[in-house]
Structure prediction request, 586 residues.
Amino acid sequence: MRKLPLALIGAATIALASPAIAAPAGDFHQLMNDYWAAMLKESPLLATSAGVDTYDSQLDELSLEAMDRRTAQAQAFLNRLNAIPVTSLPEADQANYTILKRSLQEAIEYNRFGARQMLYGTLGSYHDYYAGIGETQPFRTKADYENYLSRIALVPDRMRNYGEISVKAASEGYVQPCVTLTGFPATISGNISADPAKSRFYAPFAGTKPAALSQAEWDALKGRATALIRDKINPSYQAFAQLYDTQLASKCRQDVAVSALPQGKEYYSYLIRNYTTTDMTAEQIHALGLSEVARIRAEMGQVAAKAGFASREAMIADMRTNPKWYVTTPEELLEATSLQAKTIDGKMPSLFNRLPRLPYGIRPMAAATAPGDTTARYQAGSPDAGLAGFYLVNTTKLDQRPLWEIPALTVHEAVPGHHMQIATQQELEMPAWRKYGTFFTAFVEGWGLYSERLGIEMGIYDTPQKDMGRLGYEMWRASRLVVDTGLHSKGWTKDQAVAFMKDNTTLTDANIDAEVNRYISTPGQALAYKLGELKIRELRARSEKALGAKFDLRRFHDAVLGQGAVPLDALEAQIDAWIIAERSRT
Prediction:
């Protein structure tokens, strides 16, 4: 699919506003188009990822004033939305209305918390985000490279604002806990390269010369990149590193609970609602987590017994320490991961009727942040921008990356997990703001965890260790329900959280430490996985019971993914409607 110029968006807006479309549907379509145009203008990086090249030379503004401006825009859109009677809209637009209203309300609510000023943490920070810009946009023409240089020329300004906001936040008590920041300085210095050609910012120029450019043009562009990184970007990162060392590091907090922050308890309640798309309380989630941990622990015991181990603990100890479960080079880990991915690819048609056209690749995580990062992650591509998705593998600390976790990890991050879901969403016939601008963690991560269970039906857990690895991953997500709420609402220490994870999961020590740091610095996010997965499993069981012999697993999966990422209550309504339709299908 080709890029969509902004002019065409404007033309579509005019067409939708014509008398041929009756109000209020016409008003709603006009609002959606205005909303998308505002999103593109406010987020040039989003625009680029969506294939809109109008803002390719610009970079999202980072300032409290920009946050307030976007919130005012959201309130204006919400006011317009509230003036449109939802029941008068077609069914598809009613769904769009509900999702847009929820998104606007949550954006408005978020901006009133002082914690909006906390811009760095173990799950992601702006300095790492900026360094990876060149990995998430297309490079085909001379203009693409020139726009990129114009874009990263704005990074020093954003880094300065990043520092100023962080200092202000610290002065008001909005700081990360000390225990999560021991390796944080290295994530800054790791993005400073004495040789600009080795900088992540230089990545677009590290390959071969594009055929569309002359050698003189290519050399000139590389020279500009070198000078920009050496004279502007590196100094801005060095300044932030010094600012962190002198003004921020000493102000980290000792209490790990987000409730220790100003507005902390209210903020945690908001985060739970936002990430899980439910009204569950921390106490309810904690109790559910304990129940799931007990259930999975019993299943793990059964697997250990069948494998000939005296106990669950004995099998996990062997899996954690036996050298035969580990490789010694990054290349070996990537090769094993690639083989697993291609094996799963061959099984996908048995689970889905609709498969996305966009491919995905596999590559290692950035060296600057990988040591403190999670085991793997997915980087979304874009059919409109001509970018493949990527399954990013952590190739550091190889004695902590066991082979038995690769099957569960791969189905989650690649297919049928994140790549399948996100790439499918990008190809659906729905408003562009939903394709590229909507992300409900409970749905996205719930689908990823549900995909791990699909590995059973694909037959990829073909050894006791792989099956224990799957259960260990499910236990990992169930433990999060206990640990996250324990840390932030029940007074747990980091040591308590680590001990709980150590006792119940199959994760290695380095992974447990990284994960607990993540739950501390990004409260609430980890709750979404298990709650989303349980909802999808509940809806599958409901569909199987209601449809009996008419139940078709491939059609069910197509129905789950068929409206893109949605809140869990919307997914439930969606599947209930699908069941009714399936009953009448001949």
